[in-house]
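Example 3.2
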Amino acid sequence: MTSVYDVITTIKTFLRNHPIVNYVTYGDITQVDLNKTVMFPLTHFFIGNVAITEHAMRVTVSLLFLDIVDYTKDYNANDLGDRQDASTLIDVTIRSYKSPTPWFKT
């Protein structure tokens, strides 16, 4: 069971150290006060399923990357703005996961 907590701690540490993440939450999203605008950009994650086999443990982690959208009268659909930052964070996260050095060692 401590392996699951190691996964949670590692994900929290990785996300908290990312320059475009302001706040990291874990667990039930309905328990997060989304009215606190100072929290954004916010990354929320939760563990869906954990399957333990003979030689491995498979953990399903869901990540939510949340930010406040500023709609203006001069909105241009071709302007990526902050969406580019969010896609960069997702890309960095995926690349880190696929890197030769694994996040988690047993």
